[in-house]
Amino acid sequence: MPDRACAAITLSERTLQRWQRDQSSGDQRPMREQMPKNKLSVLERERLLTVVNPEEFGSLPPSQIVPILADRGKYIASKSTRYRIMRAENQLRYRGAERPAQRRYKPRALCATAPNQLFSWDITYLPTPVKGIYFYLYLFMDIFSRKIVGWQIYDAGSSDLAGEVMRDICAREAIVPNQVVLHSDNGSPMKGATMLATLQALGVAPSFSRPAVSNDNPFSESLFKTLKYRPAYPCQAFENLLTARQWVSTFVQWYNYERSQF
After folding, report:
1. pLDDT band for position 194 (50/70/90)?
2. CATH H-level superfamily of 118-261
3. Spans of all domains in the chain
4. Which of 112, 122, 190, 233 could lock onto 118 through a cystine, CB 3.0 to 4.6 A?
């Protein structure tokens, strides 16, 4: 009979026998539900929540509320107890002055089925004779055909210069509004006001990599590696802008028209 009763309440028969031998030890099972003797009552919990929710403490965590009340000679519960009760009531989130977390959506996938639908662009450094100073290569490519549709080298990186290059590309490639999506990373020239205004005027939709993600623009990065790993890439720094532009012009001619013959 005891074995059937124990099975009904999911209790081991040996545990029952141990309790019968030593009734003073009590329930010592690790998974037992305990009721602390000093647990706050329902009225005490309501009083605690009433204290922490006024405007004075509405944006403060318990670690700051407890010392303030202690200075006033008021003590209702410890800091850990306040944290536990407020966590159970879901009142610990957004108690500070920070903005609540915003819901993020996965960006839609872009797919090119023909040329002049999806471009990718980025800026890479080209070394100069002066250490720490570089030329900036702006390079735009068509993701479908892998064609370099536009490029230019300047001695600075800015959204103004990028906008000029994109305006020239749209004129040369006969791009009409709402035809092309331009993908890039989150660099300042890419998200600059002038560049975004130029894209809006040209009817080109901008697309950006996800924040803090370094592999969302693999096409441009791969192209830069191809450029810098060419056997003809200079071992020494480019002397001036003209030298750099001449070399990149030769590379673009090879990449667009001669590379496919191999």
Report:
1. very high
2. Ribonuclease H-like superfamily/Ribonuclease H (3.30.420.10)
3. 38-95, 118-261
4. 112
